[in-house]
RNA helicase (Cirrhinus molitorella), 651 residues
Amino acid sequence: MDVTKRKAASDLSVKGNTGARLTETEPKELETQAKQKRQRPGVTSEAWRVEEAGEVHEEEEEASEIPLNQFGKIVKAKEEVVVASVVVVVAFAVVSVMVVMMRVGEKALEEEVMKMVLIREVKAEEEVVEDSVVVSVMVSEAGMRKCFPKSQTKTRQIKKQVKVQVGPKVVYVPPPPPEEESSIFSHYATGINFDKYDDILVDVSGSNPPKAIMTFDEAGLCESLRKNVTKSGYVKPTPVQKHGIPIISAGRDLMACAQTGSGKTAAFLLPILQRFMADGVAASKFSEVQEPEAIIVAPTRELINQIYLEARKFAYGTCVRPVVVYGGINTGYTIREVLKGCNILCGTPGRLLDIIGRGKVGLSKLRYLVLDEADRMLDMGFEPDMRKLVGSPGMPAKEDRQTLMFSATYPEDIQRMAADFLKVDYIFLAVGVVGGACSDVEQKIVQVDQYSKREQLLELLRSTGNERTMVFVETKRSADFIATFLCQEKISTTSIHGDREQREREKALSDFRTGQCPVLVATSVAARGLDIEHVQHVVNFDLPSSIDEYVHRIGRTGRCGNIGRAVSFFNPDSDTPLARSLVKVLSGAQQEVPKWLEEIAFSAHGTTGFNPRGKVFASTDTRRGGSFKTDEPAQASAPTPAAAADDEEWE
Ligand SMILES: Nc1ncnc2c1ncn2[C@@H]1O[C@H](COP(=O)(O)OP(=O)(O)OP(=O)(O)O)[C@@H](O)[C@H]1O
């Protein structure tokens, strides 16, 4: 301890002891002592400040006027403790600063190294561990010099492992799919309107389309597949199956359009599986790189999972192994599942590209590429991914693979673009009106203002009792908000949207399926393809901006010949651009069109508010020039008998 300081301190204590106050000259003395101390070598300005602080503290103590006789030793001991603490604090501060500097240096080095890895200046070994890419880099002397030209450690070699998190770490592993036959084949009954499917007009165009089948027996399915079809409760094929199955079996590319809930999934799965069985596809087995024979792509996680479960069901008892990959699930788990064996790879675009990019999936054996909800897969959101997918190394050219597209809606511009992915002689199959709504759904449009929507919804849900209802809203925030509001009103509700974790999304869907929560508030993430038993009711709390989306949303009810209801809140302030397309969809499905809606639609005609997506009524193949005529009733856009004589087949 500094002797001078101790003396100054004891002087102060003595003064305190005598009870005397500092005279005017005494501060000058102290000032002189202080100056001397500042000039002492080895005393840092920081230590000095601390010492000064100590003195100030002591001056404050002096005011308490404690006599030295009684407490001198204690004061001295205290003084030593203070100084010791000061030394510890200073040492700690210095060490902390050094550690922080080292960390900053390391971070900067990591960043710099990573930059060099990215621009391929430094060779790195990449390895996938869980949801991270571990990059091992040997930073050479030259590399060090490049990163830190002024560094003292020029000669040192650093081997660094940089763990790069690819998005937030996802640990979710979904529950395994059911193993018992009863669960695998559980299905709901077809509805009273199932037989009416036979009356729907079917338009098949393209050269030499194969003849439609009338029964599953005519599909030439092997024994296992026939059994699985029967166990699924399928007695006779729907129109899209009657036409689609022979077209695919004949090896033709297909763009198929059929109304929601009319069995498009089986229309592509059955002929693909049949081809695999007929050709004796190799039983899937573990391999570091899997070579699937078919890839199926769909836009949402829940939908692709549903397609996977359907594929698993129809492939039951065969050696064909379908696998599913989608976001929100632990990557390590997904990769392990794929590597166990994979004949049919079902996936959302991002995960598919990822797993192909990691070299876990090769494309040399690929025979089928299926785009479900094809118009969605080719619209602005997914088109780049689809182009990447077909451009992936090893992807067979379109002439060497079979490409199949399915949806209930096909805007003309998308149809034209889809042709880039298909062979020139692809077949276009339209069951009913392209983009038309399912006629088994009773549609009602209610005019409301934004502020009365909640009350109207409540009234509606209270009047329908415990009916399974999907409530569609435009934003994730309002999904949460409306779900909370309904729960507060004692209506068991859950919600699904893109901001919820995959675990929560799957739980929400399962609670809705089982009826534990009979109301599901959803964004467009649940609009397409989901096939949920007993959904009697769809409410468009907010109308979507595109008519295609409307058609898909209301198609969550009224499936497979069952009847359903859809109520849509129309707010003239925001929904007027949709009015004309709505009128067309309603009249096309033989629904009552409210007078006020017609008036809004009519007054919106010719304004910039007109929704160009109303063009969904391309009733025929665009290769015939399309037939979009906005002023015609939807039904009138069915092909003329003259055209039918040319290259169409009527059922
Ligand atoms: N031939 C059939 N007989 C009985 N049920 C069938 C038949 N074909 C399909 N289904 C059932 O009909 C329901 C709807 O089928 P699917 O989900 O394939 O319709 P979709 O046309 O793909 O609908 P979306 O356009 O909404 O995607 C499913 O439960 C399916 O198992």
